[in-house]
């Protein structure tokens, strides 16, 4: 190889290395913003109208909707993203209320250590000390977890929701 060829070859390698390192830096950046709303009946033109309003507080019996707005502000697809939200203490998950669009939904009854699809079963001892399998009630759920089944492209976003009842 003559000197000019070595220079061009070196420049090509440097360019290839730069391209590789640039693509290696491309990464997703998924952020989640949580909001809580509740239905409120207001009067408009003398008629009662139900509207969603920001929930600053909850009282026993109130139904609250938790919305998790996610966005990929990175420069690569977010693939197989997991979004987890604890169910607030003093509330009970409302069965079937977690959105399932483009996501697998699982629940935990042990503080987020393990997850399963509904119906969640667990082992317990009966009154005679025998192991029995029981089905968890939605009030026992401690966390909701979504695994997004479709990639979230750079700049892409979506909303996941679930409802709880204030105890």
Structure at a glance:
The protein is mainly beta.
Structure report:
- The protein is mostly beta strands and about 170 residues long.
- It has one domain (about 5-165): Immunoglobulin-like.
- The strands form 3 sheets. A 5-stranded antiparallel β-sheet has the order 2-1-3-10-5, with no helix packed on it. It has a 3-stranded antiparallel β-sheet with strand order 4-9-6, with no helix packed on it.
- A hairpin with a 5-residue loop joins strand 7 (about 120-125) and strand 8.
- The chain starts with a helix and ends with a strand.
- It is built from 1 helix and 10 strands; from the N terminus they run H-E-E-E-E-E-E-E-E-E-E.
- Tell me the β content: 35-45%
- Number of helical stretches of at least 4 residues: 1
Describe the main β-sheet briefly: 5 strands, antiparallel
Biggest sheet, spatial arrangement of strands: 2-1-3-10-5
User: If you consult CATH, what is the topology?
Assistant: Immunoglobulin-like
- Secondary-structure element series: HEEEEEEEEEE
Terminus-to-terminus distance:
80 Å
Which features would summarize this protein structure in a list?
3-stranded antiparallel sheet, mainly beta, 10 strands, 1 helix, single chain, Immunoglobulin-like, 5-stranded antiparallel sheet, 167 residues
């Amino acid at each position: 190889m003559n000197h000019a060829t070595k220079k061009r070859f070196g420049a090509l390698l440097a360019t290839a290395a730069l391209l590789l390192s640039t693509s290696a830096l491309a990464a997703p950046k998924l952020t989640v913003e949580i909001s809580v709303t509740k239905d409120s009946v207001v009067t408009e033109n003398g008629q009662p109208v139900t509207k969603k309003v920001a929930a600053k507080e909850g009282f026993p019996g109130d139904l609250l909707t938790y919305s998790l707005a996610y966005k990929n502000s990175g420069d690569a697809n977010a693939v197989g993203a997991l979004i987890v939200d604890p169910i607030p203490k003093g509330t009970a998950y409302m069965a079937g209320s977690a959105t399932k669009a483009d996501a697998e939904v699982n629940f935990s009854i042990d503080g987020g250590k393990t997850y399963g699809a509904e119906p969640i079963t667990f082992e317990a001892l009966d009154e005679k000390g025998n192991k029995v399998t029981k089905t968890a009630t939605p009030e026992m759920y401690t966390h909701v977890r979504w695994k997004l089944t479709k990639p979230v492209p750079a700049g892409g976003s979506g909303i996941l929701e679930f409802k709880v009842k204030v105890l």
